[in-house]
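Risk register update: the risk of archive-format incompatibility is retired. Evidence:
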Amino acid sequence: MRHPMLPLSETARALRDGTLDLMQLLDDVRTRMHACEQGFQAMLPEEGRFDRLALEAQSLLERYPEPAKRPPLFGIPVAVKDIIHVRGFPTKAGSALPPEALYGEEGPVIQALRSAGALVLGKAHTTEFAYFTPSPTCNPRNPAHTPGGSSSGSAAAVAAGYSPLGLGTQTVGSVIRPAAFCGVTGFKPSWGRVPTGGIIPFSKSVDQVGFFTSDVPGAALASRVFCSCWNVAPRSESPKVLAVPEGPLLACVDEKALAVFRAVLRELQSLGWKIVAAPVLDDLAEIRALHEALAAADMASAHAVWFPQFEHLYGERTRQLIMAGQSVPAEQAGAARASMAFLRTRLDGTLRQQKFGAFVCPSAPGAAPLGLSSTGDPIMNLPWTHAGLPAVSLPAGFIDGLPLGMQVIGGFNNDEALLRLCEELQRDIVRGTAAKAVS
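Archived output:
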């Protein structure tokens, strides 16, 4: 290996100005994948992957010979979750259904990716239809453990150094949780900031596109490409006040992970951050029930054409979810959709009224579970996703060598300010001494 993969913003800058040779970068990625991919299985196999990429890279170089005119993601190889349609690639969605049945046209996300000059490294493994049936992907930090899900392959591809940018989706915790388990940065923007056309839906009411990068500046660069009306000067700066949702949510965190989280907060406090308790989400159980009913109903609707034809090809957990969704009354689903806006208003109002910079909590109840039979519990992400608030997972500590994440949640449609806050927060977490292994 000639050099490690640089973070997204640095790689993009070097490719644009020509200090990093695009063909050399692709050669390094090929070497890395040849050495690691059999063990990690982040990407769906593709015959002639690097021949294709070499031709696309050459075309890109010919189209943009002048560095000053190169687009923001010029030459960046991107891992794309395999529920997102990409021209020239079958979409399998982690399922046994025939890809021709699942065919769909590219949507705005991939069109934006191409316009920004990026290259599609390939399709990344996902759990079946972005639910819980695991993919074959292992965690690059420790292959005996899950990478999380459902955006398993996209998170693993970034963690393994194949790509400085991975695309995923989140319906409950499918970006934030794998980012934490794989030790990378994950960002789920506010609901509606990124269009979801051209993607096989799990829940049209909730689904949101998100990104995996190695750091916050990379997430900000990706956001300028994908998010609607991105403002490099946010509408407001977030104060250095972090609100901890004490109560039912933190009660879901295991003892070791909670100890690391508290230690990171103490270190941040010593670096000038104010940490306050916020007694929110006392109705967590009710929020969870509403969210799960809505997701099931929407999944049943999304599969209304495929399921009668191919029920025998669905995994058991997905099949059970669809069948449960078929029995959710329309009134219940409607009430669950209304509860999303209500919770958003409530949490957003708390942030503004109390002048909190963000809510913070662990990104998952603990480190990545052993084995590949479970992708982990998304409960730490569920209420924030239900509210549609923007969320970031920052690497923050370890348990027995496995990474943990700190989830940082901002105000609705104030994603720009959240990322600025997280950039400072990430620097201070790295500076701190609390992010050490706990055994």
